[in-house]
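Hi everyone,

Forwarding the result from last night's run.
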Amino acid sequence: MHLGAPHLRAAFGIGFLILFVFVGVFTYVNFELSRAPLGLSPMHLGFVYLVFLPSMLTTPLAGWAAGRIGARRAVGGAMLVCAAALLPLLSNQLAVVLAGLALVGIATFFAQAAATGLVSRSAASDRAAASGLYLAAYYLGGLAGAAVLGQVYDQIGWTATVAIIGAAALAAALLATRLKRE
């Protein structure tokens, strides 16, 4: 029943793409940060993950934003911010890369929170099953992000990896237009 609802299929696709993007960025950026010209040490790479702190502060706002402007706009806008935040990841200046990483974290956490809430609110019945399908799609997206983008990174490089991640973020923003109006 849930797979027959176009707005829920769109939400499941968004969930897939959110973790695809997130895993793609935060798995493969480490390889770039550890090589020249940045050359971060393993210890410094660990500190990079402090970029998640702003995400923890802004994620609770996703429900409020979805309530004010609708989940469609909240998710779509967050994924557009995410797509724009990918360009700084190609910089050879650490501060620029860190700013991009922080924005990717904020945007993906925000979109995830808004999309998850929408799924549970918009399922006509059996909300647990709808949430389970969303989470299955979400984690499958993470698996695909690691596998597919690993091949792209190894064979073509970081710029191509970022381009594919950007296409995925834009696809999620486009899918957001198919979410149920609230």
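The chain has a mean pLDDT of 92.

Cheers,
N.
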